Amino acid sequence: MNLENSIQTPVFRLIGEEADRLGLECYVIGGWVRDLLLHRPSKDIDIVVVGSGISLAEAVAKRLGKGAHLAVFKTYGTAQVKKGETELEFVGARRESYRSESRNPIVETGTLEEDQNRRDFTINALALCLNKNRYGELLDPFGGIADLEDCTIRTPLDPDITFSDDPLRMMRGIRFASQLGFCLAPETFMAIKRNCERINIITKERIADELNKIMLSRRPSVGWKLLDSTGLLPLVFPELAELKGVETKDGRGHKDVFLHTLQVLDNVASKSDYLWLRWAALLHDIGKPKSKQWEPGAGWTFRNHNYLGARMIPRIFKKMKLPQNEKMDYVIKLVDLHMRPINLIEDTVTDSAVRRLLFEAGDDIDDLMLLCNADITSKNEDKVRRYHQNYELVKQKMVELEEKDRIRNFQPPVRGEEIMQLLSLEPCSLVGELKSAIKDAILDGVIPNEYEPAKAYLMQLAKERGLI
Ligand code: ATP
Ligand code: MG
Fold first, then answer.
1. How far is the CA of 225 from the centre of ligand 2 (A)?
2. Ligand 1, residues at Cβ distance < 6 Å
3. What is the per-residue pLDDT across 36-81, written as a single tens digit (0 to 9) for each?
4. How far is the CA of 139 from the centre of ligand 2 (A)?
5. Quick one: which of 42, 84, 222, 399 has the most CB atoms within 10 Å?
6. Which of 81, 115, 91 is CA-nearest to residue 11?
7. Can you give the residue ranges of every domain in the chain?
8. pLDDT beyond 70 at 346
């Protein structure tokens, strides 16, 4: 097959010319070629050189001239050239051999075929020649094109060896299946099942990278279901595996929280690309196994599961090397608050309760409502419609109250310093109490969210307490 017409990228001609001048064979390889054939956008371009990747990179950087940036990594025999949006990685073709105790192989220079052999999947082993007399020639030794057409993820060599050599490839395979909407070839799937325990030699950071890519795919449930069916799930995320299964007592079961969670995740994913909102969806019921109880009369209950779940998140994020920053705080907040809107619609909706929710959710209120809508996974269509309608009413009420009271980014209209000044107080806990009394009065609708009424309310409180 020749793809000359598909690769009109000017920089490829230039790389080919420089390679010809140096007498080196060179190819675009891997993800970029795969994505070209799948019509997906692809950022990083990997170039394999039979010989020194660094010397070709140096020549290319020189030809690209001003604005081109060259970085050489001698120990790895690789080099990177960047200019504007273009990012090129150069590496010499190599052969790899593995020892069982480590992910780090012994690396030697090799032929193009040997370099293709060490690649993880047939669809990632495609190489396109850039030398002038073979420009656009596609080298596909393992039937990668056929696998692209069949939407199949398959290892080029014996999958047991491929996965045992580098167990990260198991995660990558599942990630590609989820990202591309592909299936794992049966022998590839079975080999992951046999080798899943080997994932333990991979660092948590690399696993987290793959999990985030699964989370960003169109239907993340595909990846999580494969992690489950291959046996990887309890190894990479045991708390999520705990959500699996249904218990029955006196003929009453509860829903499978794992499957429900994945449906909520896909629902959120269809509405938002925001990674951390998707994590909040995955984790919203993570506290359920801990809170599950059988209560005679009430059946299965999961009291306070939102609160318990929120409390589990810092430990989970730390262990999984997910960020320990405001992203995590956002996930905690959403998990903690995810039962509030439903409680709002089950009781009569009071202004005070809506104001309090607006206050606590702040700018994340829209994401919270999106999560809550996604959380309705009942099979009963009437019920689903009713819930959605009720949420719409809550949203309307929020808009009305927000216009009137501006609660979302609430700052108390009378500040601590002013309270101290007005009442001649030193900093003490009483100042905090008075401040939160003003806040409560505003959230409960006793006074409007304005300076003068808040000050008057403070002075009245002070009088009642004998402070003035
Ligand atoms: P993406 O960039 O979307 O993550 P990719 O396939 O380009 O996907 P990279 O990590 O950029 O993945 O790697 C580039 C190429 O290097 C891959 O296409 C594959 O040929 C090879 N590769 C990467 N990681 C491995 C690995 N762990 N084992 C074998 N080959 C790998
Ligand atoms: Mg890539």
1. 24
2. 30-31, 44, 46, 119-120, 124, 166, 168-169, 172
3. 999 998 889 999 999 999 999 999 999 999 999 999 999 888 999 9
4. 18
5. 222
6. 81
7. 4-150, 157-236, 416-464
8. no
Residue nearest to atom 21 of ligand 1 (CA): 119
Q: How much is the pLDDT for 76?
A: 87
Predicted confidence band of residue 411 (pLDDT cuts 50, 70, 90): confident
pLDDT score at 351 = 86
Give the model confidence (pLDDT) of 13-43 as tens digits: 999 999 999 999 999 999 999 999 999 988 8
- Residue 467: per-residue pLDDT: 85
Q: For a substitution probing ligand 1, which of 80, 139, 172 has the most ligand atoms within 8 Å of its CB?
A: 172
* Domain made up of 4-150: CATH architecture: 2-Layer Sandwich (3.30)
The CATH class of 157-236 is mainly alpha
